[in-house]
Design brief:
By secondary structure, the chain is α/β, with parallel strands linked by helices. The protein contains ten helices and nine strands. It folds into two domains: 158 residues, TPP-binding domain (Rossmann fold, 3-Layer(aba) Sandwich), CATH 3.40.50.1220; 77 residues, SIR2/SIRT2 'Small Domain'. It has a six-stranded parallel beta sheet, with helices on both faces. Strands 5-4-6 form a three-stranded antiparallel beta sheet, covered by helices on one side. A hairpin with a 5-residue loop joins strand 4 and strand 5. It starts with 11 loop residues before the first helix and ends with a helix. The structure holds 2'-O-acetyl adenosine-5-diphosphoribose.
């Protein structure tokens, strides 16, 4: 199979045109061109500057809820200032052409929804939502408060972002739907993800085992997974629109 071919490797355009079931898993890299930092890119990744165990675990929140809340408030502001890019928009076009299309994201930024994707499966939650740390229940329309973190209007406990932290379970239904979509995919794309965080990373392996053509699109030199797969080394905001134009010319 072709590897490292810049835009559309031989055969991929035809495979996309013929596909009935396409499943896409996205990660932080698809939002990089919207100005949001990834986690593991050298120099710019969040985990180059911060330690996940200080900020993204329940233990970290128990130890220092204020620090964790403020870090997520900073990230939420970045997200609120960001807009979808050409990569997010290309996935909307693919959704319109494929009869069974599933978009699974590890991102918490809502940029797929803002771009117009109809159905987005969020594996790691959403940074715009807040939930009660004790009750694990989403709190809608909470009042602004000077307390950091704010308190749950029902039980008075601390509020936290509704994102999945290290050591926590993924939302069960979302993960179940994601596995089903990986099992049944004709083509499985992993876009802008380093494939290092389980169980999301396992979806590409599941898809491959069940016979999908697996396409990895990121800036990494080598993908973690073994062939047979396509590895496209390029920016999602350039590669995906090129793929869409090649598959469905205006
Ligand atoms: P990573 O930061 O681990 O990986 C980002 C990937 O995007 C890398 O493979 C880059 O090469 C690629 N990339 C960067 N810019 C790109 C671009 N313009 N176009 C295409 N690819 C690009 O991010 P994730 O794999 O999403 O979880 O990280 C997975 C999880 O780890 C996150 O959801 C988060 C984090 O800890 C939690 O917080 C639970």
């Amino acid at each position: 199979m072709d590897k490292h071919n810049a835009f559309a490797p031989a055969g991929l355009v035809e495979a996309l045109q013929a596909a009935e079931r396409v499943t896409v898993l996205t990660g932080a890299g698809i939002s990089a061109e919207s100005g949001l930092p990834t986690f593991r890119d050298p120099m710019t990744g969040l985990w180059e500057k911060y330690r996940p165990e200080d900020l993204a675990t329940p233990q970290a929140f128990r130890r220092n809820p204020r620090l964790v809340w403020e870090w997520y408030t900073w990230r939420r502001k970045l997200v609120e200032q960001a807009a979808p890019n050409a990569g997010h928009r290309a996935l909307v076009t693919i959704e319109q052409h494929i009869s069974e299309f599933t978009l699974i994201t590890q991102n918490v930024d809502s940029l797929h929804q803002q771009a117009g994707s109809q159905r987005v499966i969020e594996l790691h939650g959403n940074i715009r939502r807040t939930k009660c740390f004790d009750e694990n229940v989403v709190v809608e329309n909470r009042e602004e408060s000077a307390e950091v973190p704010p308190r749950c209007p029902r039980c008075g406990g601390l509020l936290r972002p509704d994102v999945v932290w290290f050591g926590e379970q993924l939302p069960e239904q979302a993960f179940h739907t994601a596995v089903e979509a990986a099992v049944h995919a004709d083509i499985f794309f992993a876009i802008g993800t380093s494939g290092t965080v389980e169980p999301a990373a396992s979806l590409a392996r599941v898809a491959q085992r069940f016979g999908a053509t697996v396409v990895i699109l990121n800036l990494d030199v080598e993908p973690l997974e073994a062939p047979p797969l396509y590895h496209i080394n390029g920016r999602a905001g350039i590669v995906l629109p090129a793929l869409v134009r090649a598959a469905w010319p205006e």
